[in-house]
Amino acid sequence: MDKPQLTKAAKTLWYGVFEDAFGGRKRGPFQLTRRQMTKILGDEYRLDQDLVRRFQTVCMDQGMYVADLDRYFVCIDLSDVTGTRNVPSEIIATHFPDGDDFDDDDDDAEDDEYPAIMRRHLVEEDEEIAPRQNHGEDEDENID
Prior knowledge:
Residues 114-125 and 132-144 have low confidence and may be disordered. A three-stranded antiparallel beta sheet has the order 1-3-2. A hairpin with a 3-residue loop joins strand 2 and strand 3 (72-77). The chain is 40% helix and 10% strand. The protein is built from seven helices and three strands; from the N terminus they run αβααββαααα. Helix 1 crosses helix 3 (49-62). It folds into two domains: 3-82, Arc Repressor Mutant, subunit A, CATH 1.10.10; 89-119, no CATH class. By secondary structure, it is an alpha+beta fold.
C-alpha cells in the first residue's frame, strides 16, 4: 500500500470515523479490531508491522495517534497524547531512587510469587493493592 492510499485511509478515519456518533459519544477516540484494520488497509494486504508503522506515521501527520495494542488499535487525537503532564525529576527520584536494581536475577523465586507491581517495590509485600477507581466513567460503556 503506497503513501497516497495510506493518507486516504488515515483521513477517512480522522475526518470520518472519529467524527461519527457511536458508542454513546458524539465523536472522539475509538478502537479497531485487527480484522477491521486489515479491511481499512486493504483486504489483500497482510497486517505486517512495517505496514502498521507506516500507517501510524501517516496518521500522526494528520493529527491522530494510532496505538497498536496487539488485539486491537486505539485511535485518539494526537493532542491528547502530546498534552500530557511532564513528570518532575523529584517525582522520578522518589519512585526510582539511585541504587534500586529492578532487574535482579537473584529473586526469581520471589518473581513467581508476587505480581509485577509488588516486585517493582512500589507496594510493600503486606500492603493490599487498591482496585482502580472508575472516576465517574460508566464501566458498561464500550466503544462498538
